[in-house]
Specification:
The chain has about 160 residues and is mainly alpha-helical. It has three helices and no strands. The protein is rod-shaped and about 80 Å long. About 20% of the residues are buried. The model has no long low-confidence stretch (mean pLDDT about 90).
Length: about 160
């Protein structure tokens, strides 16, 4: 189990082929992270707008609507944060998987079980992140229904 001083071109090509599939998964996770971080930015921006609006309102009913929306926005932010965290850990596992493929192939290590474990765990984390994403989208839709209850004219902000 020592260092393999002579790794053939064929062996190297096989290792690279094995590493390509997880790289595509990594690219997909990166795209998903981009979408979620964009959503998180919009949630934070919206929370700032609603927070300022609430400070300027005097009608208790309108203030309570703003407070409800703020609670939902911060819940969405928390869910999105968790989703981003799970995706990041999944991406790190995929990176570890790719490194393991190269190291295991180069040193002729028998680490198939470890590689399968990294892959399965990464996919489970990705599934959890996608489920959280779905929950966040549902909360966003619910917030739209709250906003429809009052028109812009109802918020007398001058």
């Amino acid at each position: 189990m020592g260092i393999n001083p002579i790794i053939t071109t064929t062996d190297l090509a096989l290792i690279i082929q094995l590493a390509v599939a997880p790289v595509f998964l990594l690219a997909g996770i990166a795209g998903f992270l981009n979408v979620m971080s964009g959503r998180l930015g919009r949630i934070v921006d919206r929370a700032r707008v609603i927070g300022l609006r609430e400070l300027r309102l005097s009608d208790p009913e309108q203030k309570s609507i703003c407070q409800l929306e703020l609670r939902i926005l911060w819940r969405r932010a928390k869910i999105t944060n968790w989703s981003i965290g799970l995706c990041t850990v999944a991406a790190l596992l995929v990176c570890t998987l790719i490194v393991s493929l190269f190291v295991g192939g180069f040193w002729k290590l028998h680490i198939g079980v470890l590689i399968i474990g990294f892959f399965v765990l990464a996919l489970l984390l990705l599934i959890a992140a996608l489920m959280l994403f779905l929950k966040e989208v549902q909360l966003a839709t619910r917030t739209l229904r709250i906003a429809q209850e009052f028109s812009v004219e109802d918020f007398n902000i001058s």
